[in-house]
Amino acid sequence: MTVQMEQRETVSTAVELSGVGKTFGTGGSAVTALRDIDLRVAEGEFVCLLGASGCGKSTLLNLIAGLDEATTGTLSVRAARPSFMFQEAALMPWLTAARNVELALQLAGLGKAARRERAAELLALVRLDGVGDKRPHELSGGMRQRVSLARALAAATARGQQGPGLLLMDEPFAALDAITRDALQGELLRVWEATGTTIVFVTHDVREAVRLAQRVVLLSSRPGTVVREWQVDGDEKVLHEEITGRLRQVITSHAA
């Protein structure tokens, strides 16, 4: 399995997977989570990975992030350092919102003045200007996720790469109430349009996928492989119904 991490002045592809598979364990106890994944994500593209629970969506994100290695196939990631955003905000509780964002910049080697300036810019971008001195326990769940988004964006762009950053998001809004989730989905779209960040977003919610993505990629039940892809354009209601029907077929065939 080959992983290439590189930075180029002009590239059209942020992530490319060819024949990627992942098996955990060996022998009779081995479990194959992913099989023959072929996927290309363009720079600046917003792609949603959709599938039932246990289909390998999170495993695929971990491979792209470099947190795990594929068993088969090749994976090329053209970003200085992919950034991850989880379902939980996972902020450092003893640090303020601003310092949580600055931490990603500090790890990338930025000086104190540059860190403070960039953190303030990112908090303003996610509409949290004025709360940089608050600690996580003083913020609502939605606000903590905004801080997490600002920190992820800081990590994705900290090294000043020429192309857009790469943000990997593993069901980041699943734990939020419906109203807050809806608001943050809108904020994410606004931030994506403002920054041109490449986003690979994992969800099991068809409505969320259709609302957010330029392209929806459906994975089969385990072992996960790409079943079908849809470009999101035209009538979203019709597309929602079509994707939902195909997802039901996937789940039903697995249950049978």
TrEMBL record:
Q: Which GO terms describe its molecular function?
A: ATP binding; ATP hydrolysis activity
Q: Keywords assigned by UniProt? A: ATP-binding, Nucleotide-binding, Transport
Q: Which intervals hold domain ABC transporter?
A: 15-246
Any one Pfam family here would be: ABC_tran
Q: What SMART domains would the database entry show? A: AAA (SM00382)
Give yes or no: UniProt keyword Nucleotide-binding.
yes
Q: Which InterPro entries match?
A: AAA+_ATPase, ABC_transporter-like_ATP-bd, ABC_transporter-like_CS, ABC_transporter_ATP-bind, P-loop_NTPase
Q: Which PANTHER family match?
A: ALIPHATIC SULFONATES IMPORT ATP-BINDING PROTEIN SSUB, TAURINE IMPORT ATP-BINDING PROTEIN-RELATED
According to UniProt, the name of this protein is: NitT/TauT family transport system ATP-binding protein
